[in-house]
Amino acid sequence: MDPHRTLSLRSRKVEASGIRKFFDLASRLKDPCDLSIGLPDYDVPESVKEAAIRAIRQGHNRYTPSAGLVELREKIKRDIGRHAAFDGDVLIVSGVSGGLTLALLAVVNPGDDVIFLDPYFVSYLHLVNLAEGTPVPVPSYPDFSFDAENIEKAVTPRTKAILINSPGNPTGRVMPATEVRAAVDIARRHDLLLVSDEIYEKLCYDGDSPSPLALAPERTLCLRGFGKTYGMTGWRMGYAAGPPWLIDAMTKLHQYTYVCAPSIAQYATLTALDTDVACHRRDYSAKRDLVCRLLDRNFEFQRPGGGFYVFPRAPRRFVSATAFCEAAAAENVLVIPGNIFSATDSHFRISYATTDEMIRRGCDVLCRLAGA
What we know:
The chain has helices spanning 3-6, 9-13, 18-28, 46-57, 70-81, 95-107, 122-130, 148-154, 177-189, 227-230, 244-255, 263-272, 278-295, 321-330, 356-371, and strands spanning 33-34, 89-93, 113-118, 134-139, 159-165, 193-197, 220-225, 238-242, 309-310, 333-334, 336-337, 348-351. By secondary structure, it is α/β, with parallel strands linked by helices. Helix 4 packs across helix 12 (263-272). The protein is globular, with a radius of gyration of 21 Å. The termini are far apart. 46% of the residues are buried.
C-alpha cells in the first residue's frame, strides 16, 4: 500500500510534536537536567486518589452522559458563577486539548481563519489545520502582549475565531484586563468567537488572570483543566464553558469521538474541586522567583506571571535558539527551542516545574553557556 496515496492530506499537514522529540532525547541521556517538560512535579492529592479508588469500587466504571456527570457540571457552574454572571452550559472534556479539538471542529469550516498570538502552544497550529481551517499567528514579540491594532489588522471576512491563552504557554504571560477587554471588543465588532485557553488559571502568582467569560459570555468559550492544578495530567480532565448553542454542538461531536471523559476521573474531580491546593501556587511562585533571579544577569526575558514557564531570548552569539538548546543538551540540560512554538527561532522555553536543585543546576549551565 502506498502511504502517500493512502494517508489523508489533513494527517500530512500535522507534524509530530517537537516537544516530544526532546522527550525522546531526554530518554537517551544519562541523568539529564530536564527543564523541558510542562508537567507538575507534585502528585495528585491523597483525598482525590481515594475518591478515584472509591469510584472504582462502587462500580462507577461505565460511560457517563457525553456532557459529563450532572453533579460535576452543576458544581462547575456554581464555581464560575462566583466570579462571573454565567447562564451558559458546561461540557466535561478529555483535557483542554480535547475541548479545543471539539470547539474547532464545531465552528471551523474549510478555509476559515483562526487568529492567535505567536509564540503559541504547539497544538494550536495543528488543531486548526486538522479542522481544515487556516491558522493565522500574529507576532507578539518582544513583550508577548496582545496588540489590538495588529490583531484587528489580521481579521478578514474569513476570520471565525480568536484564540487567547492566559497564563500563556510558552511565555508564562498573564493578559491584563485591558488586553482582555480589547480582545472582547474586536470579537464583538467582527462577530467572532473568542476561545480562551485558561489551563493555568489557578497558577497565577501576581493576582488573578482576567477571563473574557465575565465580559462576553455570549461569544466566549472558556477552556479550563484539572491536570496541572491537581497533578492529574494523565487523568485527562477538563471542561468547556460557553453559550448553550456551542456547547450543544460540541457535545454532539463528543458523542462520536471521545464519547465521554473518563468516568472514574469525573467522580474524583468532584472531590478535587473541594481540595485546597494553594500550597502549589505558593511553591511555584517561589520557583518562578528563583529561576528569574538566576537568569537575570545573563538573559533577556519577560518575567512570567503564571504557569510553569519562562521564555528567554537565546544569547545573541548563537545563530539560533535551536543552536543554543543543542549546546545545552550537550551539557546534559534540556530546554525547548522557540521555533517549536513560533515562526521565530530566537527564544527558548524553560520549565520550572521541577525541584529547586534541578533549577539551580540547569540555570548554572545555561548561564555559563551564555557568558562563554
